[in-house]
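[Discussion] Sanity-checking designs against the backbone

I'm trying to build intuition for which residues belong where. Below is a structure token string of 142 positions. I'd appreciate it if someone posts a full sequence so I can compare it with mine line by line.
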């Protein structure tokens, strides 16, 4: 999926707005994903998946860092997330559909905290960006 100049600008604006709250958004995204799509819990049997869990917060921080990294390198998402793509495809073997579910949950979290920010245009741009991130993370599965 190709991001237009407008999409890239919208994505950068969203991440500039959420800024220091990205880690909290990452944890909330995981909590929402685990509650809404319980099958995603299978990749975290060693985690305490309760609300406010330090392990979920820690992984949420990693998720947020990856999304920020991708947004900061929106012209080369594949390069920015190459190592993460290798990890998920070769070692962790996460079901690729989970990246789409994670993206949907991230959109909901952003919208719930910033309803005025998520105009239809920004929503579409962020959705395209999250799809691009998911595509990059699953590209090495083939």
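Best answer:
Here's mine. Compare freely.
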């Amino acid at each position: 999926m190709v991001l237009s100049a407008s999409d890239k600008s919208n994505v950068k604006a969203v991440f500039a707005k959420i800024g220091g709250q990205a880690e909290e958004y990452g944890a909330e995204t995981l909590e929402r994903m685990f509650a809404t799509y319980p099958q995603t819990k299978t990749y975290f049997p060693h985690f305490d998946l309760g609300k406010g869990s330090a392990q979920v917060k820690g992984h949420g921080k990693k998720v947020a860092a990856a999304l920020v990294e991708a947004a900061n390198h929106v012209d080369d998402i594949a390069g920015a997330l190459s190592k993460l793509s290798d990890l998920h495809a070769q070692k962790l073997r996460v079901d690729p559909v989970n990246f789409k579910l994670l993206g949907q949950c991230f959109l909901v979290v952003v919208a719930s905290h910033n309803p005025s920010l998520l105009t239809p245009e920004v929503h579409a741009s962020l959705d395209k960006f999250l799809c691009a991130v998911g595509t990059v993370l699953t590209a090495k599965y083939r």
